[in-house]
Amino acid sequence: MRLGIRANLAQFSLLVGVNALVGGMLGQERTVLPLLADETFHLTGYTFLLTYVLAFGVTKAATNYFAGTWSDRFGRKPVLLAGWLIALPVPLLLIWAPSWAWVIAANVLLGVNQGLTWSTTVIMKIDLAGPHRRGLAMGLNEAAGYLAVAVTALATGYLAAHHGLRPAPFLLGLSYAALGLGLTVFAVRETRDHAKLEAAGHQSTGELTNREVFARTSLREPALSSASQAGMVNNLNDGLAWGLFPLLFATAGLSVSRIGILAALYPAVWGLGQFVTGPLSDRWGRKRLITTGMLVQAVALAMVAAVETFPAWVVAAILLGVGTAMVYPTLLASIGDVAHPAWRARAVGVYRLWRDGGFAVGAVLAGVVADVWGLRAAVWVVAVVTAVSGLVVAVRMYETHPRRTVEVQGEAR
């Protein structure tokens, strides 16, 4: 048993594919669900409409925490398997939903599915990759997931335009769940022993209680807590894009197919960009990319709020994807840098608890502001929050990549 992506290439590649299926489960909703809320269920009030984002965010955030704890206690594969079993009813509930309550119930299950499966694939890849190529590992993992979000959002937009909002778009999700379950049962292998191998090379045992891990990751440790707040704001942005962007674009008279293009473009650039930004963080370090990425996202959101045409929104979506690509895999890599292998899975779970709590915060914040002052005002508010988050990282976070940290210390001497 060895550490490293090349040494574990077959299993690592399989897990990249599995995470693409995880992302596809999320992508089935990106284009269609806001339109379904408006056209089929005739919901009024943005806060009420965003209840599905709130339900998803709360359950995914909580499940992330337990996924990390359970991965240490029971192993990675059982947690991944449980996540896929919970995924199976989600597309069926969306297809058959006679009321909005069914949609909320489906998103509760989707949140549990995403928390268990995505968290576990992250932990497993960190286990396999070892300490020096975590940026590359997280770039590949997140790229696969969010490219699948983009492709599925585009595909469901096409299916909705040609075959209606239900059931055709959600049949993709059903196929993803079945395939993910099958691969997990028959092909995925346990990786917990790889974490134990890495831990054996550390001088300290690194044992901490769950409460200590939570406190360090949330507040006490500067890099971990900076990453947690930046992750939360990043997904606050994504919740806004998921729930309100299609409605904002629709107010400008864009067709369903054009809304689908915009809904797919942002995660597509985000996904593809991580092929570059993940390994780049292994060379340049983490802090620089995170700070710059948050500020780029703030500029992109301000542009979404300010412009009114499809070409301008295309540019804004690309810019938002670039900024998110700079941040997303780099935050995960920084958690892996700082956390000891003995409690790393739990630290990833706590980080993802805060990060995906951003969906819930974004649903409430954006929904309330949109109801009171309008859609564009909600986007402006989130743009300001994102800029402030980037400044917090610039002030509080230190460089976490092992090689870059040694170089900086050497230059200081």
Automatic annotation (TrEMBL):
The chain crosses the membrane at residues 7-26, 46-67, 79-103, 143-161, 168-188, 240-268, 289-307, 313-332, 379-398. Keywords: Cell membrane, Membrane, Transmembrane, Transmembrane helix, Transport. One of its GO terms (cellular component) is plasma membrane. It is a multi-pass membrane protein. It is found in: Cell membrane. One of its GO terms (molecular function) is transmembrane transporter activity. InterPro entries: MFS, MFS_dom, MFS_trans_sf, MFS_Transporters, Sugar_transporter_CS. The keyword rRNA-binding does not apply. Residues 3-401 form the Major facilitator superfamily (MFS) profile domain. It comes from the Bacteria. This is MFS transporter. The lineage of its organism: Bacteria, Bacillati, Actinomycetota, Actinomycetes, Propionibacteriales.
